[in-house]
Design a protein that fits this description.
single chain, 213 residues, alpha/beta, two-stranded antiparallel sheet
Length: 213
């Protein structure tokens, strides 16, 4: 694909799924929430949002995680340095983005309250404004994934020393577009209590034919 003409409207997805889940005590990516595992949900939502390709960055328990999404349309890429920090997984994902893509959205697999609509909105705002950076803001205070980076920022994103984008967002805040979401969408699943709470909430949504796609 490296010889394809670049389409600035084409946006890849980078789904981070390389962590070892030490605080959870088991591989959280394989936990069931709403009838599917966390990693499967993240890949599915990325595809439903129109991200193309969807790059799944794996690390810990690589084979098991990749097997979980083997029937979905995604491109797994292994981060051999995953134990040194999430920034290496971001860099690995960015390196795998085809030259034809003009931007990429970085997503975390352990944020089940993020929806396909949220990701689509980032892509739409990028198309409308041509902003090089479209950032999710939760409760008007916290900037966090999913975050869209234009190709012009890929080099900086790949050189981050920590985290999954705060330093780049801070450096380019005047050029960024922020999309605001309710603070409850920010929740990630790090500990057993987080998982039990999410599992109960998704079960309740299902019984109400609810609002989480």
């Amino acid at each position: 694909m490296s010889d394809e003409r670049r389409d600035e409207r084409r946006v890849a997805g980078i789904v981070l799924a390389a962590g070892s889940s030490t605080r959870m005590g088991r591989n959280k990516l394989l936990l069931d929430v709403g009838g599917e595992t966390l990693v499967r949900r993240a890949v599915r939502l990325a595809a439903e949002a129109g991200l193309d390709p969807v790059i799944l960055v794996t690390g810990h328990a690589r084979e098991t995680v990749e097997r979980e999404v083997r029937d979905l349309d995604c491109a797994p890429t292994f981060n051999p340095d995953h134990e040194t920090g999430i920034q290496t997984s971001v860099a690995c994902g960015v390196a795998a983005v085809p030259a034809a893509c003009g931007a990429a959205v970085v997503m975390l697999s352990d944020m089940p309250f993020v929806t396909a609509r949220m990701v689509r909105t980032l892509v739409e705002r990028h198309a409308e404004t041509d902003a090089p950076l479209v950032v999710s803001r939760y409760g008007r205070e916290v900037n966090a994934p999913p975050i869209l980076y234009g190709r012009g920022l890929f080099g900086e994103v790949s050189r981050m020393k920590a985290g999954c984008g705060r330093e780049v967002v801070r450096r380019h805040h005047e050029r960024a577009v922020h999309v605001e979401w309710p603070v409850d969408r920010l929740r990630d699943l790090d500990r057993p209590d987080d998982y039990e709470s999410a599992r109960r909430e998704f079960a309740g949504v299902g019984s109400r034919s609810g609002d989480l796609p």
